[in-house]
Structure formats: C-alpha cells, structure tokens
Write a structure and sequence with these properties.
5 strands, 9 helices, Beta-carbonic Anhydrase, Chain A, disordered C terminus, alpha/beta, five-stranded mixed sheet, globular, 13% strand
Length: 258
C-alpha cells in the first residue's frame, strides 16, 4: 500500500483535535483498526504524529485521539520524563518515519508530578527506581527566576516554588512546558525539523474526567491552528524557546547524555 501524503504539522494537529472531540462526545469512529488496515501496514509504517505521554493507564493516546493502527508513534514514560532513549525514540519518529508533529501529552492529577511536589515541600523522596522518575520531574517545578528579578523587587524563587507546590494545575502545565523545552534543547534533529517547518511540537494536557486535550504550549505551529474545539481558555502559546534548562537527560545508569 502506498504511503499517504504527509500532512502539514497544522493539519496533523487538527486531525488529533478532531479525534479527541469525537472521543469526548462518545462518537468515536475507531478508524484504521480492521483486518485490511492491519495487513496494509505490515511492511511499513507512516505515522502522522509522535505522541510522548505519561504511562498512566487512563491516558492511551490511540483511544483519546480516536486513531488506529499505524497512525501514531507512541512513546510513554511515567510522568513523561525525558532520557536519552526517549530522545532517540522521538527522533526516530520524526527523522526516519517522517512524522510532522510531536505532542507532549501530560494530564491532570499526575502521580509523578504530585510526588515531585511532595518532595519539594518535604524533602521526602520515594524508594527504589521510582525516585529516578521524581528526580527528573523536580527541575520542571523548581522556579528559575526571570532576568531582572530578585534584588530590586522581583518575586523570589522560594515564594514561587511555594505557589507552584500548592497549585496542581500550574505544576502540570509547568512540567509540560519544561518537557517541550528539553526536547528542543537536547535534540538537534527535532530542533532543525521545527526550524525548517517540517515538524511542530505541541505540549498539551488531558483532563481525566472530561476527556478533553487542551494545548498548553506550541513550538513551530501557527497560533491560529492551536485552538481546541471548545471555548475553554488555555495558556497563551508561544513560538519562542524558554531559557535553556539546567538539567541534562540521563541514561538509566545515571550517566550524562552528550
């Protein structure tokens, strides 16, 4: 079966939003899930989006976006934390499979984000390898003061950390933004694809109870194409990268990535 033409980043995002709207209203089409589709893609795949999301069992990308086999290249970790294998997987989807869109999909009431907030407030960290997940979420919610703040009337970092730790919505959005920035800061291949207009990155949040996916931040996507199907407000998207994060993605053995 010949590959369909690759959609633009904006068209790919609109397709995902349309599928999510069907999911929210309970009118799913369940496309590309029959035997014919399974056979037609058995020798090659051409996904139109990479979805990097949380491993939470309630946030399955193909379901919440009402998509089928071969549509999405999905990468998942607890708390959508980034390491070198995540970066490599996303680059595989964009550079080798030609996906024109990367979506970082967070969600409300994320256990990993909640555990990081608890650690920030109390200094208590979980045992075992769960600690590695929390360690990688913490940089997202630790305030980095804007240039010019501090002495002279700016908000101090401690007070902002306290505000974030008591506002789960702000925490979740901050973690999504930081994840998007990390992907672009550390993946030259992804950054180049965005700069050349071949790909866009959208950070979004899924509402567990409602089922709606709403954009939090975009990179490389025109503002006119970020609208969700409802009138619910979202954070103001921006196409400019934020300050480079100080944390480095690491491999499971703790070594720094290049």
């Amino acid at each position: 079966m010949a590959a369909m033409p690759t959609p633009t980043p904006a068209a790919a995002w609109r397709e995902l939003l349309a599928g999510n709207d069907r999911f929210v209203h309970g009118v799913m089409e369940h496309p590309a899930q029959d035997a014919r589709r399974r056979s037609s893609i058995s020798t090659a795949q051409h996904p139109f989006a990479v979805v990097f999301g949380c491993s939470d069992s309630r946030v399955a990308a193909e379901i919440v976006f009402d998509r089928g086999l071969g549509d999405l290249f999905v990468v998942r970790t607890a708390g959508h934390v980034v390491d070198t294998t995540v970066l490599g997987s996303i680059e595989f989807g964009v550079s080798l499979l030609g996906a024109p869109l990367v979506v970082v999909l967070g969600h409300d009431s994320c256990g990993a984000v909640g555990a990081a907030a608890h650690a920030l407030r109390t200094g208590e960290l979980p045992d075992g390898f769960v600690r590695a997940v929390v360690d990688r979420v913490l940089p997202s919610i630790v305030h980095r003061p804007e240039p010019g703040s501090g002495a002279g009337g700016g908000t101090d970092g401690a007070s902002v950390r306290g505000n974030l730790a008591t506002d789960p919505v702000a925490l979740g959005h901050e973690h999504v933004r930081h994840t998007v920035d990390m992907l672009l800061d550390y993946s030259a291949a992804l950054r180049t694809a965005v700069d050349e207009g071949r790909c866009a990155v959208v950070g979004a949040e899924y509402a567990l109870g409602e089922g709606r996916v709403r954009p939090v931040v975009t990179r490389g996507l025109p503002t006119a194409h970020t609208d969700e199907p409802t009138d619910q407000p979202t954070d103001q998207p921006t196409d400019q990268p934020t300050d480079q994060p100080t944390d480095q993605p690491t491999d499971d053995d703790g070594s720094m990535s290049a």
